[in-house]
Sequence to fold (260 residues):
Amino acid sequence: DDLGVTSSSEVNARNLSKRNITKEKLCSWLERMSIILNSNAVPLLQITVPKADRCEKLEQEKIKDQFTIIKLQDEVLKKKDEEVEVMKQAMKQTVKREITSYASAVTKSCVTALAPANIGKAVKTVVDKDERLRNVIIYGLAETTEENLPDKVESILLGINEKPIVKDCCRVGPRKSGAVRPIKFRLSNRDIVHQVLRKSHLLRNKEGCQNVYLCPDRTKEERIAFKLSREKKKAVEKAQYQSPSDTQDDELLKLRRGSG
Fold:
């Protein structure tokens, strides 16, 4: 009140030098300030200083841990480099052995392998395989006397939401009474063929196409292998879903046939 101030920021030399501020008042204020500091600031300092020391210690430990991590990372990288080097050496030795073996085999068989007939056969096989990968076969599509095969094929492809460029449509095999010959056609590349075959199951939901199937252009050997694989799969599925009573009935039927 003697100073005539409203905040601590106004307690400055100019206000303390007023004439009404005596030495006794200043001593009294200083004494009260000391009491306030001792009762409030000192305990806070006693709490804060140890925590500051603890924080500094934790910071030092963090720095030490970071150095340890960096050291471990360097060791891991070094170990990986060593492993990579070992693998490189092993691969070099393996490649060297394989090249030596291959060179020996080529040397022995080069005369036969480079024969014109064998070269022509190999080229024909590669070309035939590439052409088959771009072909699609349609089974079960009704055959008429004056049919427009491109239109029929395009209609089937539209049924699975595909409209690729279709080439070289033809029926496969000689015409036989009561038999429906498959249709073979060619697409631009094997990726489009894969896309068409992947969506062929959509024909099951299209009216009039429940018995129409799209298949890749397989060789005779591939068709036989595919048929055997499908029959084996059906046999396994039948065995899985067949009840014990059905199995017993089959065994009894076999016994009766044998006794008869």
Q: What stands out?
A: Residues 137 and 184 are 5 Å apart (CA to CA). The longest strand covers residues 135-139. The mean pLDDT is 82. The radius of gyration is 46 Å.
